[in-house]
Design a protein that fits this description.
The structure is a homodimer. Chain A is an alpha/beta fold. Chain A is built from 15 helices and 21 strands. In chain A, a hairpin with a 2-residue loop joins strand 20 and strand 21. The longest helix of chain A is centred in the first third of the chain and has 26 residues. Chain A is globular.
């Protein structure tokens, strides 16, 4: 399973084996194997050895999480907020170490990527989650004072977070958006590190542990395991003690976890693969073709293309400027150095996808520049296929090629474009570039409903790789980009809703109501829907 | 499977076979069999024969629904509202016929139950859904004007509604809460009638069809099938053309459908079984024991106990008044006539459950009054088990006995009560009766968190059988009472959220935004979260 890709299991334990964080203590894992981080720029294995946990570790973590959950549920949001803020401060204090560790484990540039973009994004998310916890706004209380019925959201229980390879900070299992959202809902987190960055995860876990101490929260609020056999992962997400699971990663891994969780009636939120189609209409190309080629190449090759919202498929409608656009993009692909990929698994996966897509009939337009000499690196690959060929096997051409590759579909006309849009799989995003003068508006109107139903976020004249941290963001989309089209992984407070139950109080005596449902909640900034009117206290 | 219980399949088609409503036309089904309604009071089979549809019928309905969905998505909420209101008016016009048909198919009293309670509840729900459609408030628009990001909910696609046996109007597949919520979200509905009330469903479908005509909505907005082979039902909920499914019924049927839908990545909302525990604390019994016995018996025997929120398990803490309470309840059970059950399947299921629960060690306290002579009727059965025995196999004693039966658990003390509360399965409701003078407050505080996590609606001093139609209602609960603890089947606008996707617009040009996301929405009464503030337009 993909969430265990890149491991080097071994039954041999030894003194360099790193401890796991269970029930508030750093302790030796009961390990069934181990793995080490690998520097993707040099392919050199790091010193520290991280354990693959046996079921007994998971079992202990689940017990501790359940007990922490009961304690957290009874705490005021202010306490949760204090922890999240203390944690953000700890992260800033440890910034250099975190950046160094993540640089060594991901190959991402220290600056701006890690230090100046992803780290501030991470602390910002934690602070926004703190704010939501403090105001209790994620609970969206609804009061019907005549019927004496009061409803609000509360935490769903312990949350398992399995983070992805590509954002060691902002989507990290013990630091990212899922973590922040779960904690804001008073849910303890059992984090499973991504095997690509165990050391980074460890540093975060240590910082979180210190912040828990400082804020006086139950120490089992945050627990960290580095890995486990896939069968144990499947058992974990289906365990009765789990409230919900958040997974970001491959479709194969996600679907296996989904099946296990579904069978047990356990909510699971998945962010899986997405090709993020970009339709480029003739009028836009005519107006600003060179500019669009630049914009596209910058977006698609950023971070070696390792973004969930990487624009993997361009739907290019034939026109006088189409060939020039393709030529410009191909030239830029050839000229840009092949980026460093996160690990051997990503490199292999990318190669297999490129082979599969070209094997299905797409042409490779790039001449194959030299990849980085020592890194997990591949040349940038631009593929091209005709609209007719695409329509013959649309699913084959929508295979995600995670990394620095993209497919251009040469679409014959607006009619064929609509036909192709009707075959697009559920995706996180879809973009349309159209003429500013309105020349493409008829085509836009024809394809908008088709794309709208197939993506979570629809963009105009903008590449999808920037996922703003905003309450109005939707980082989600129809299956199979996620498991449910009604939820988002980014955007507080909506992202918090994933980790909640809906709790109704019917004629419950006033002194027994939680504060956010009392007649006078006494919580600064809390918005409530009272008898049909939104009111802030 | 339970949603096909009580059928008399037959490959013989003939002239009395009723048509199905597909793609706006009443037309002959492609049938693989048929069934007839049965009057549960007389066990007499009705004249009219209803078809079990072949896949080709479902296929045609799905195609028509998908095309209707695209049209509905483009309509203003006002048009949807006009249909829902026209439909409510049609229902009122046909009231006598509907009441008569439902009376014959369910055995429920014409008045007050059908004519004065369930029918007005049904039209009220439709009108509240109309109001939500008109104000667009179910969309909960969120705007971030600085980032130019705008999100709102929109309809998820065609919705399959499979209604339960026990509410032919208010939860009916073509008239009830799921139907109203789906339509409010601009989702066409494919309704599968419950086999207990095909004639009632037909009358509703005719009324809906007329209302669609009157309101000028696509006629495929509402389609009706009467039944199908279980394998076809499973295929239907997993079909790519389906947006989501709402099912209310047995756990067995619900779980089979859930598995099929989950595998296909299709949202399914289930309301399955629930035992709805009621804890009666000593102080309450001391203060008002006789009153509580009356209240309990009225709730548990209402409608022959055929309510989703029927209080099936009483947790009675030992005290001086406990035996008197049990005696009073047993006496009332013996004295009350055994009600009429909905069909042979319910009667059989009830007998099996009572046998299983007594077979697990519960004593039957009632002496077995005469059931109704011709009806599907069983004597009221009160069972009793000790707390120790309950704790030895809690799942056995939480088997739902749908109908006029209940289990009293004799709990030794507050400690055992907490232990038992910790074994309660996910339930729609949980109630606690406690002393008004505060004598039970320590016990209440100890069990409240345990019950709170195990139910959707927590009540004080009140039986759970009244499910108010209110925005603050939660008719939902943890698995296995439903499939997800974050959703409700009653309570507009929250119930509508089940049938929506989250749609984000990122830098979309102003003239292309849907009205509810425009700078000036021009929609009366619409609440939006704009840059952190709820504002009404």
């Amino acid at each position: 399973m993909a969430f265990l890709g890149g491991l080097t299991p071994s039954a041999q334990m030894n003194d360099t084996m790193q401890p796991v964080l269970i029930a508030g203590m750093w302790r030796a894992a009961e390990a069934t194997g181990s793995f080490r981080g690998v520097d993707p720029m040099t392919r050199k294995t790091a010193e520290a050895e991280f354990p693959l946990s046996a079921w007994s570790d998971v079992d202990a973590a689940l017990d501790a999480a359940q007990s922490a959950f009961e304690k957290l549920a009874a705490l005021p949001g202010e306490k949760i907020a204090a922890f999240l803020e203390a944690y953000a401060a700890q992260i800033e204090q440890e910034k250099d170490k975190l950046v160094e560790a993540a640089h060594a484990e991901t190959g991402y540039p220290r600056s701006p990527r890690l230090a100046d973009v992803e780290l501030p994004r991470t602390t910002n998310q934690l602070r926004l989650a703190a704010q939501a916890a403090r105001t209790e706004n994620w609970r969206t209380p609804i009061l019907d004072t005549k019927a004496n019925l009061r409803s609000a959201r509360s935490g769903i229980g312990p949350v398992v977070v399995m983070g992805p390879n590509n954002f060691p900070f902002a989507f990290g299992s013990v630091s990212g958006g899922d973590f922040a959202a779960a904690i804001a809902a008073h849910c303890p987190v059992i984090a499973k590190a991504h095997p690509s960055h165990p050391k980074t995860t460890q540093l975060f876990a240590e910082a979180a542990h210190r912040a828990l101490h400082a804020a006086g929260l139950p120490l089992s609020t945050v627990q960290v395991l580095y890995g486990m056999d896939p069968s144990i992962g499947l058992r974990m997400v289906a365990d009765p003690r789990v409230g919900a699971t958040a997974f970001t990663g491959s479709r194969r891994g996600g679907l296996a976890l989904k099946e296990a969780a579904d069978r047990a009636g356990k909510p699971i939120y998945l962010e899986m693969s997405s090709v993020n189609p970009v339709a480029v209409l003739p009028g836009a190309l005519k107006e600003r073709g060179a500019e669009l080629a630049d914009e596209f190449v910058a977006s698609v090759l950023m971070g070696a293309g390792q973004f969930c919202t990487n624009p993997g498929v361009v739907l290019l409608v034939e026109c006088e400027q189409a060939q020039a656009f393709v030529d410009a993009v191909a030239q830029k692909f050839d000229a840009a150095p092949g980026g460093c990929l996160l690990n051997e698994g990503v490199l292999d996966g990318l190669s297999r996808s490129v082979e599969a897509i070209s094997g299905s009939g797409a042409r490779v337009l790039t001449t194959g520049g030299a990849p980085h000499p020592t890194a997990y690196s591949a040349p940038n690959v631009l593929l091209e296929v005709g609209g007719d060929a695409f329509l013959q096997q649309p699913e084959k051409f929508q295979r995600e090629a995670f990394g620095n590759a993209a497919l251009i579909v040469r679409v014959s006309d607006a009619t064929q474009l609509a036909e192709i849009c009707g075959t697009i799989e559920g995706s996180l995003t879809a973009c349309v570039y159209s003429a500013k003068d309105g020349a493409d508006d008829a085509t836009y109107d024809a394809i908008e409903p088709l794309l709208r139903r197939r993506c979570g976020r629809l963009l105009n004249d903008k590449m999808p790789t920037g996922v703003a941290v905003s309450p109005a963001m939707n980082h989600g989309g129809p299956y199979p980009s996620t498991g449910h089209p009604g939820f988002t992984a980014v955007g507080i407070p909506t992202s918090i809703v994933r980790f909640t139950t809906l709790d109704c109080y019917d004629a419950v005596r006033p002194h027994r109501l939680p504060p956010w449902l009392a007649d006078e909640p006494g919580i600064d900034g809390l918005w409530r829907l009272v008898d049909g009117e939104w009111k802030q206290s």
